[in-house]
Each structure stands twice: as structure tokens, then as C-alpha cells.
């Protein structure tokens, strides 16, 4: 059977409805942004059901819907104007200078594309493993953030299915982290629904980049050509599966972890992350003395002193090495022990630790390389179930599901989303090699906590 083909119908570029004065200046990037130049775009999207056809109401018209999306996007970009720009590099030899920034003046704007595919929502949601065709629901497939010099920093791809609509959003990871990605998405949805406009939204972004004292806004990179710090990443053959955990299942897991370590401080997410770390390590059948670690994507906004606004727009994250142990020790100890390692690392991630990382970077400026960030024996917990993902509605009601694109996928990557039914439920998108996935699906400790997906 031939795989389904996504057919691109049209594209255009969307500029802010009007230009604010600040957009005429170079928009400089902070250390947390610049380190991302050689990683990939954030690609997340929502699958909606098309409205049912009725006799007494006007039927859904895709062209009217697309026009409404474009108009509301143009209004949203007034508030989030860097997303309509392009990256630019200013370079000189004497004195040596290499500065990457956002140019909001010489850009056609954000990209908006419309595509179709001969699939139903059930074709996307019913298979055990996430279908590969999902990768074609997003722009910027395999693009690095540095490609934002010539590619849009934001693309919205609307893919029309037989009975559904997928709104795929790709944003340059040198401009946003997950918190800012969903902040933008939330405000676009708000404006689409007529609850905000180009003058006023409920959560205006704080666009001023934060720099450590005595540094910025212009930060030189120690390079003369981008080939010196770019390395394209091609992921291995993976299986990707969504695992559902009900609020009841999460509550039991949290209680178990706390009881085993005789504490009440371990959180739900730390308990779940410890479970994933232990069970993936067991599925890999690692040697007893092989060191394995669990990394958590951690938001630095509230950890700085004074803290950054929750609406700070940009990157303010680190991949925290939260737990480390030999495979033997991790599996000989219980869930509570593993969860406590993660809890301690999160609690100790203070203003001092955040500034320590920044000071190291300022002394020796580097760019993350995806293939060197994560080793094949470890686990990385990304995204967050706290982000408002299912609150984004575009006149189609609540989304049926959330899915992601190709970017940042490797064996041992788990992305956490809120469960569709809310209430503290969690959906985990886990990527593993085919053999490791088969072993995880046979792991009793893991599968006993997994819940049936709500219909």
C-alpha cells in the first residue's frame, strides 16, 4: 500500500497588521537563544474534527476558515513581531565580530501554507504507532534554526483531512522555547475567537531579551563561518507511540514514589519521569555497570532572582541532568529512590546554578549539537503537561489530539502533554528503537501504570 501523500495547495506570507516602532531595530538574541542555532525548529500541532454538516446551519467552508486564520495571525504578529522576521548575521574581520540577530525589516513575514491529504482523523489516531505521514503536516522538516536566515521563523501549515483539520505550527527554536511557543499559540487562538486584537491581549509577551549583568544586547560568537558550528541531524529509525496516564493512575504512582522514600515532596511529574527512566533502562537491557541518566527540560524563568516574567518571550530553558546511576543501581533501587534523585536536582536548580551555566557560556561560547547532547543510554523528558495546549480553539471546538513533527526525536526522548480529558492526566509521546519499544510494551512495571486512552 502506497503511503498517503500530502498535497500542497497554496502558500503565502503574513506580515503584522501594522509595524510597531521597536520592530524597526535589530532584535538581539540572548545566550539561551544563540546556543540553539544548530538544533531544529519546534514542531507541534493540533488535530480538530471538521464541524458536522447540518441542514439549518451554514456548512464549514475551508477558504473562509483559512482567511480567518490569516487575518487573526496578522493581528497576533503585531504582538509577536520577531516571528515575522528573519535571522541575519553581522560580520567583520577588524575587530573580529560575528553577531546573529533577528531582522524584522527585510522579511516577507511568517509563512502560511494550505495542504490536503486523503486520510481521516481515525487514520491518524487509531494506529498503535504515530504514522510517519504526520511529519509532512509541518513545514521546516529537518531544518536547523540557523536556516532562519532564508526560511521563515514561523510557519503555520493547515492540512485538510477528509473529516478533520490539522493546524501544524513550526517555530524557530532560537526565538522561542516551549513556554513561548504555546504562549504565542494561546494568544493567536484568543484573537481568532475575538477575545483580543492587535491592541490588546490577555498576556502580552515580554519581548525585551534578558542578558546577564554587564553583557548584551550584542553578543559576539567565536566563529568566522556557520560551517564551524552547524551539524545537520538525521534521527535513527524509531517507533513513536502515545501512552496515556489517567489522573488516578498518576496519583497512585506519586503516592507510591513518596511512600517508598518516606517523603511527601516528590511531584507527579518526577514520579512519572522516574518510571520512564527505570523502564526504558530495563527495556534496553544495558550492562549492569553502564551509566545512565535522566534529563529534564527545565524552565529557568522562575528560578532567577529576581525572576523573569512567566510571559518572557524567548528561550529560558536548560536540559537538566537530573539523575545519574548505573543501570544496575537504578533497577535494584525502587521507584521512590529514582524519583528522589530527580526531585533533588529540580529543587537545587537555583539562581546560582542558572547563572553558573551562563557564566561558563560567556567565557567559552558554544552552540548545542543535537547528536552530542544526548547519549544512547539515557532518557530525556521534554515539553510539559502544564502548558495550555487543549485551550487553543479555532471555531472547531476542543482539539482531538496533539502531535509533533520530526524535530528532536531520538531513542529515549519522551515529550509530556496534558491528557485530553484534563484533570491532571498526562499523555507521553515516547520514541525508541523498534526492539526497545517492543521491550517497553512488555514491561509490567510500566504497562501497569499506563491507562486505556479515553474514547
TrEMBL record:
Keywords: Transferase. It comes from the Eukaryota. It holds the Pfam family Transferase. The keyword Transferase applies. GO terms for molecular function: transferase activity. The keyword Nucleus does not apply. This is Transferase. It comes from Dovyalis caffra.
Amino acid at each position: 500500500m502506497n503511503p498517503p501523500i500530502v498535497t500542497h495547495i497554496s502558500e503565502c506570507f503574513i506580515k503584522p497588521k501594522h509595524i510597531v516602532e521597536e520592530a524597526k531595530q535589530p532584535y538581539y538574541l540572548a545566550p539561551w537563544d544563540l546556543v540553539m542555532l544548530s538544533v531544529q525548529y519546534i514542531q507541534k500541532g493540533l488535530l480538530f474534527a471538521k464541524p458536522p454538516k447540518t441542514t439549518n446551519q451554514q456548512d464549514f467552508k475551508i477558504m473562509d476558515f483559512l482567511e480567518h486564520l490569516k487575518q487573526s495571525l496578522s493581528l497576533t504578529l503585531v504582538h509577536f513581531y520577531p516571528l515575522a522576521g528573519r535571522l541575519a548575521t553581522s560580520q567583520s574581520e577588524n575587530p573580529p565580530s560575528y553577531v546573529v540577530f533577528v531582522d524584522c525589516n527585510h522579511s516577507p513575514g511568517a509563512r502560511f501554507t494550505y495542504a490536503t491529504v486523503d486520510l481521516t482523523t481515525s487514520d491518524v489516531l487509531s494506529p498503535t504507532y504515530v504514522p510517519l505521514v504526520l511529519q509532512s503536516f509541518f513545514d521546516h522538516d529537518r531544518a536547523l534554526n540557523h536556516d532562519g536566515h532564508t526560511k521563515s521563523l514561523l510557519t503555520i501549515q493547515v492540512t485538510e483531512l477528509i473529516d478533520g483539520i490539522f493546524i501544524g505550527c513550526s517555530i524557530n527554536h532560537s526565538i522561542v522555547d516551549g513556554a513561548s511557543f504555546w504562549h504565542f499559540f494561546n494568544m493567536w487562538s484568543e484573537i481568532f475567537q475575538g477575545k483580543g486584537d492587535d491592541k490588546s491581549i490577555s498576556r502580552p509577551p515580554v519581548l525585551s531579551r534578558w542578558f546577564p549583568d554587564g553583557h548584551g544586547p550584542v553578543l559576539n560568537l567565536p566563529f568566522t563561518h556557520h560551517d564551524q558550528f552547524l551539524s545537520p541531524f538525521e534521527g535513527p529509525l524509531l517507533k513513536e507511540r502515545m501512552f496515556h496516564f489517567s489522573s488516578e493512575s498518576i496519583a497512585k504512582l506519586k503516592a507510591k514514589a513518596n511512600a517508598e522514600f518516606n517523603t511527601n515532596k516528590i511531584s507527579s511529574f518526577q514520579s512519572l519521569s522516574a518510571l520512564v527512566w527505570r523502564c526504558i533502562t530495563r527495556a534496553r537491557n544495558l550492562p549492569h555497570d553502564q551509566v545512565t541518566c535522566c534529563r529534564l527540560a527545565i524552565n529557568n524563568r522562575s528560578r532567577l532572582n529576581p525572576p523573569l516574567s512567566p510571559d518572557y518571550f524567548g528561550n529560558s530553558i536548560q536540559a537538566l541532568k537530573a539523575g545519574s546511576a548505573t543501570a544496575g543501581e537504578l533497577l535494584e533501587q525502587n521507584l521512590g529512590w529514582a524519583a528522589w534523585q530527580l526531585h533533588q536536582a529540580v529543587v537545587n536548580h537555583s539562581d546560582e546554578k542558572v547563572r553558573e551555566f551562563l557564566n561558563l557560556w560567556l567565557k567559552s561560547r558554544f552552540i548545542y549539537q543535537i547528536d552530542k547532547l544526548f547519549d544512547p543510554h539515557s532518557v530525556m523528558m521534554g515539553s510539559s503537561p502544564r502548558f495550555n495546549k487543549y485551550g487553543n480553539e479555532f471555531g472547531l471546538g476542543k482539539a482531538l489530539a496533539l502531535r509533533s513533527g520530526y524535530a528532536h526525536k531520538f531513542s529515549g526522548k519522551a515529550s509530556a502533554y496534558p491528557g485530553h480529558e484534563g484533570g491532571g492526566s498526562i499523555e507521553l509521546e515516547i520514541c525508541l528503537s523498534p526492539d526497545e519499544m517492543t521491550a517497553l510494551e512488555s514491561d509490567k512495571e510500566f504497562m501497569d501504570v499506563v491507562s486505556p486512552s479515553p474514547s
